[in-house]
Amino acid sequence: MIRYRYNVIVADPTWLVSLSEIAKERGVLPVKLIFAAGDRMTEAYRNYVQQVWQAPVILGYGSTEMGGGAGMECHERHGYHLDEFNLLFEIIEPDSEGYGELVVTTLSRRTWPLIRYRVRDITRFLEGFCPCGTTVRRVAPIRGRRDEMVVMGAGNMYPEIFEKVLEGVQGISGNWQVAVRQEGLRDILEFRLELTNGIAATAVEHEVQKNLESRYPDVWANQVCGMYRLAFRFFPPQTLVHGRKRKRLVDERGE
Ligand SMILES: [Zn+2]
Predict the structure, then answer these.
(1) From ligand 1's centre to the CA of 75, what distance in Å?
(2) Share of the chain above pLDDT 70, in %
């Protein structure tokens, strides 16, 4: 970076976090902008990287089937502006908040055209114009994969919910899994967490419950009403190590 004086970084999220850790130790070079792909870049990671480099992290959204990039954030960093010049986007079976499965039709492609291709990602269109001035429509950050959604006593659950609930909780690693189990007639929402830094399990439980209550009051209310029960299981570090495809939210009812 010093030799070529790069001032824009385009990187895989995981790699970017590692690079930032190195940069924090050895010194940071002036960077204007950092681009990364969206799915594994949590807000906690993004904040960390932005803080290290003192530069905005702009996320892109896409998939192999869509031909790579299908949308990108602007400087506002609030949803992805879509490539509506080349792709037609629809959201099917939206819920009351507008969240549903993204469906794509290619408009300009001669090879591998797609007609109403089900991307399996859950998102919604954002209302109104973006302050950046671009009139191209936006979708909200992806909530999760359709096959990761679990309908249960707490409501429609997505991995994104637990990512947000666990954000900022001290003493746990980034490797976690939430399982929906059944005991008798009741759904159990079980947090499986790795304890680090020797912080007491009870302190972590307290913190997670507090976050759930303040960040997702509806989900919390369903627990207070007895629609489901919360449970916690703790593991030593590196026992829940995630492969890229390992599910963060699993439905184990009926197993
Ligand atoms: Zn914008």
Answers:
(1) 7
(2) 96
Distance 71 CA to ligand 1 centre (A): 11
Ligand 1 center to residue 133 CA distance, Å? 6
Alpha-carbon distance of 234 to 50, in angstroms, equals: 31
Instruction: Give every strand in the sheet of 249-251, ordered side by side.
Output: 228-235, 186-195, 172-183, 249-251
Number of domains, the chain: 2
Cα 128 to middle of ligand 1, angstroms? 11
pLDDT tens digits along 142-200:
887 787 888 888 888 888 899 999 999 999 998 899 999 988 778 899 999 999 988 89
Q: Which one-letter amino acid corresponds to residue 88?
A: L
Could you tell me if residue 186 is inside a domain?
yes
* Residue 83 resides in a domain: no
Within-domain flag for 158: yes
Q: How far away, in angstroms, is 100 Cα from ligand 1 center?
A: 22
Query: What separation in Å is there between the alpha carbon of 58 and the centre of ligand 1?
Result: 11
Question: Which CATH number is 169's domain given?
Answer: 3.30.300.30
By residue range, what is the domain housing residue 163?
149-251
Contact predicate 103/76, CB 8 Å: no
d(CA 233, CA 82): 40
**CA of residue 129 to ligand 1 center, whole Å:** 8
For residue 67, is it within any domain?
no
Q: State in Å: Cα 69 to ligand 1 middle.
A: 16
Can you give the pTM of this predicted structure? 0.71
For residue 137, report the distance from its CA to the centre of ligand 1, in Å.
Answer: 9
Comparison of pLDDT for 120 and 204, the residue scoring more: 204
Residue 195 and residue 200: Cα distance in Å, rounded? Answer: 8
